[in-house]
């Protein structure tokens, strides 16, 4: 509901603001978005590096997982080449293709979900032994 309201408000309210108010609104929204993104990445970094004693870091598995994620996202390039061939007037540039390829590898939601996975409990035989690798990815 909030997302739908903000889309509708953007379409109708923004146009009724003065040019100065539009510029101030854009600047304020960009500043708040940047601050939120910085706070998320600060939290991610602190969580991974400050919780180091609780995890067993297997760097070969982390490297293999990140490499697998990068390779699995390579389908972006052939599909965008197909799209560019079908509509020659409106092409997707190479830098946008790289951005689409790399954008699937980040996300605070994935990090939060990985943090919710319980660590392996030897007595109960439940949980995951690979939480540290999931967090590093």
Can you walk through the features of this model?
With 137 residues, the chain is mainly alpha-helical.
Radius of gyration equals 21 Å
The major sheet is characterized as: none
Number of helices: 7
- Provide the succession of SSEs: HHHHHHH
Low-confidence stretches: none
Indicate the mean pLDDT: 76
Query: What portion of residues is helical?
Result: 55-70%
Question: What is the beta-strand fraction?
Answer: under 5%
Quote the distance from N terminus to C terminus: 32 Å
Question: What shape does the CA trace take?
Answer: extended
- The number of E-state strands comes to 0
Structural class by SSE content = mainly alpha
Features:
137 residues, single chain, 7 helices, mainly alpha
List the helices and strands and how they pair.
Layout: H1 2-12, H2 19-50, H3 59-72, H4 76-86, H5 94-103, H6 108-116, H7 131-136
Compact description:
With 137 residues, the chain is mainly alpha-helical. 68% of the residues lie in helices and 0% in strands.
